[in-house]
């Protein structure tokens, strides 16, 4: 099977294990070539108070044009945090660089814990909603699901009917499949899958608290698995299991919260020979 190439439209943080710096090594371990399209370069992610950031929005059109001139076409597009509405619009232009039947995996990074992140505006949410309509796989957490659908954040574990209604609304607008991650109940985590009009669930043990970059790890493993032609259910299972294992390793090594998931020593578990 020919090696797959995945374009990664996300920021690049030098320290803290998130975004491109997490996604690239995971895709490589899974046998794919990751192609970075950095939306911004940060010294460290924004949970650190002293981070420095250079926004690359004005550079992205020329960056993408160089790919077009080379005739490059990718097997997948993976998007993550977008710092402004312009980047969401530019992300849509990346679709022109994809092969027919390519995977479009969108992680709509908008918020958590029932609230949008401080930098997220109504305009960014609207642009992300438009971008989500292009997704082959959309990966919101519960907060992001509610923001995309304009629903109030539930006070308790969401009902199956609530999740189905939200997923059906997104798919009616163009999204193909939805995976709602990070649903917690009684010490366990649930990933709710809505694919081909049917609902499914993947459960695993909750270990520790969410960390910066854990969603990027989850998304990267799903993308890498789908590019190996695994089913969406298999891909989510693999991703959830890998994040759980990485969290155990992280806690064992007493890694500070802001430093993210200690996943590097576990990459061999994702290699094709380990399947």
Task: List descriptors.
275 residues; alpha/beta; two-stranded antiparallel sheet
Write the layout of secondary structure elements.
Blueprint: E1 5-15, H1 20-29, E2 33-44, E3 53-55, H2 60-70, E4 74-79, H3 85-93, E5 98-106, E6 111-112, E7 115-116, H4 122-132, E8 137-138, H5 142-149, H6 160-172, E9 177-185, E10 188-195, E11 198-205, H7 214-227, H8 232-252
Parallel strand pairs: 1-2, 1-4, 4-5, 5-8, 8-9
Antiparallel strand pairs: 2-3, 6-7, 9-10, 10-11
Helix pairs in contact: 1-7, 3-4, 5-6, 7-8
EC number: 2.7.1.35
Enzyme class: transferase
Domain Pyridoxamine kinase/Phosphomethylpyrimidine kinase: 27-252
Report what the structure shows:
This protein is an alpha/beta fold and 275 residues long. The protein has a single domain (5-274), classed as Ribokinase (UDP-N-acetylmuramoyl-L-alanine:D-glutamate ligase), CATH 3.40.1190.20. Helix content is 35%, strand content 26%. It has helices at 20-29, 60-70, 85-93, 122-132, 142-149, 160-172, 214-227, 232-252; strands spanning 5-15, 33-44, 53-55, 74-79, 98-106, 111-112, 115-116, 137-138, 177-185, 188-195, 198-205. The strands form 2 sheets. The protein has a 9-stranded mixed β-sheet. It has a two-stranded antiparallel ribbon with strand order 6-7. α3 runs parallel beside α4, α5 packs across α6 (160-172) and α7 runs antiparallel to α8 (232-252). The longest helix is centred in the C-terminal third of the chain and has 21 residues, at 232-252. The radius of gyration is 17 Å and the shape is globular. The two termini are 15 Å apart. The mean pLDDT is 95.
């Amino acid at each position: 099977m020919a090696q797959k190439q995945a374009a990664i439209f996300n920021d690049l943080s030098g320290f803290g294990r998130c975004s491109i710096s997490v996604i690239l090594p995971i895709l490589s371990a899974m046998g794919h070539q990751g192609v970075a399209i950095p939306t911004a370069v940060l010294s460290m992610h924004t949970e650190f108070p002293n981070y420095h950031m250079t926004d690359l929005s004005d550079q992205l059109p020329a960056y993408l044009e160089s790919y077009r001139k080379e005739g490059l076409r990718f097997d997948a597009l993976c998007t993550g945090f977008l710092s402004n509405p312009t980047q969401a619009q530019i992300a849509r232009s990346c679709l022109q660089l994809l092969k027919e039947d390519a995977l479009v995996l969108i992680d709509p990074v908008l918020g958590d814990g029932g609230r949008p992140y401080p930098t997220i505006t109504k305009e960014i949410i609207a642009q992300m909603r438009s971008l989500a309509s292009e997704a082959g796989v959309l990966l919101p957490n519960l907060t992001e699901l509610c923001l995309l659908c304009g629903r109030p954040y539930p006070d308790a574990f969401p009902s199956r009917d609530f999740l189905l209604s939200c997923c059906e609304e997104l798919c009616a607008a163009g999204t193909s499949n939805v995976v709602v991650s990070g649903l917690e109940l009684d010490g366990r985590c649930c990933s709710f899958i809505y694919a081909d009009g049917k609902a499914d669930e993947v459960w695993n043990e909750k270990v520790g608290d969410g960390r910066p970059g854990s969603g990027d790890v989850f998304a990267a493993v799903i993308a890498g698995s789908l590019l190996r032609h695994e089913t969406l259910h298999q891909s989510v299972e693999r991703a959830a299991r890998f994040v759980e294992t990485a969290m155990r390793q992280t806690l064992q090594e007493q890694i500070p919260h802001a430093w993210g998931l200690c996943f590097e020593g576990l990459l061999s578990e994702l290699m094709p020979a380990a399947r």
